[in-house]
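Title: [Solved] DUF2384 domain-containing protein 3D structure

Original question kept below for reference.
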Amino acid sequence: MRTFLAIADLWGLTGEQRLLILGYPSRSTYHKWCKQAREHGDLTLDVDVLTRISTVLGIHRGLGILFPTEQLGVEWLRTPHNAIIFGRRPPIHLATSGSQDGLLTVRRFLASALGGLYMQPNTIDEAFMSYDDAEIVFR
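Solution (posted by the thread starter after getting help):
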């Protein structure tokens, strides 16, 4: 839970978005979880919440591998994307839709990109210049 809170801060999630990602527990329950996590207390979460947190960790990990800085990863999450699955909306919109499937879809998209499947260009990619053979050096 502490790691989820740190990622939520990094991504700039609102309180409402945090609740949606976690399956919309009551605000009092959410604040109790936060308090327990910050105090390193015992915390029991159900399988749905654990799956959602695990998915957020997977998204964060994928962004960390695909982008050289956390800032670029967050920018990718918040920039409208041309991939059909995102409907020209930012991936964070799908991740914070409240459904576990929305979160998992973003996670699977990143996993596909990590696996080498083509990822449609985004505005971040506009300045990318492909390498030519002269730039490849074998030692």
